[in-house]
């Protein structure tokens, strides 16, 4: 199972802050997961943004990061703290 | 505690004094305080909501502290960031660094802020006279962080 979290503007656009999805071997990277989410259409197009950031197991990573069963994944817009 | 993420307000002066009191070998204390402004991008700001990613936030800040300590001979580091609702004029963030001599403390404080702004999972939503809107990331912040790579 994958635990997926959405933050800030994405959370609002998607109308949810988290969901669980079964992991399958086809979901080899965060990019594969993003493509699956994008295929839902509609509001999910927000994840196509150029400046999207992501994290795997609470560490920033790129979309090519490998994905494994049990991972916690997060998608979010550019961070704006400080 | 070197890393703190909290909703409560803080007193920057108290934080600076505590950093120095920790070690009499400290010759330099550098502190940065970030505040909520009442104006941004041509809009009046009435308030702000700071969202974060609990769990990852603390890890991201701890990692930035470790990296700063690897680069400079620091005697102390404190990173304090508020979350939740904030009013104009209130402090949002405090970064304090201490060292025997000033150069390390100055550089490390600058570095920590640049990395915090581009790598720590915080998001600002401003309440303005034109409604609430998420603050967008700025290229200048990315460029500032790239200086250290």
List the helices and strands and how they pair.
The complex is a heterodimer of chains A (82) and B (149).
Chain A: E1 2-6, H1 8-14, E2 18-21, H2 30-38, E3 53-56, E4 59-61, E5 72-76
Parallel strand pairs in A: 1-5
Antiparallel strand pairs in A: 1-2, 3-4, 3-5
Chain B: E1 3-6, H1 12-21, E2 28-35, E3 39-40, E4 43-52, H2 56-71, E5 74-82, E6 84-86, E7 91-99, H3 102-119, E8 122-128, E9 131-134, H4 139-146
Parallel strand pairs in B: 1-5
Antiparallel strand pairs in B: 2-7, 3-4, 4-6, 4-8, 5-7, 8-9
Could you walk me through the main structural features you see in this protein, from its secondary elements to its overall organization?
The complex is a heterodimer of chains A (82) and B (149). Chain A has helices at 8-14, 30-38, and strands at 2-6, 18-21, 53-56, 59-61, 72-76. In chain A, strands 2-1-5-3-4 form a five-stranded mixed sheet. Chain A is globular, with a radius of gyration of 12 Å. Chain A is an alpha+beta fold and 82 residues long. Helix content of chain A is 20%, strand content 26%. The relative contact order of chain A is 0.30. Chain B has 149 residues and is an alpha+beta fold. Chain B contains four helices and nine strands. Chain B has helices at 12-21, 56-71, 102-119, 139-146, and strands at 3-6, 28-35, 39-40, 43-52, 74-82, 84-86, 91-99, 122-128, 131-134. In chain B, strands 3, 4, 6, 8 and 9 form a five-stranded antiparallel sheet that branches. In chain B, 35% of the residues are buried. The mean pLDDT of chain B is 95. The A-B interface holds A 5, 7-9, 51, 55, 58-60, 74, 76-82 and B 34, 50-53, 55-56, 59-60, 81, 92-93, 113, 116-125, 134-137.
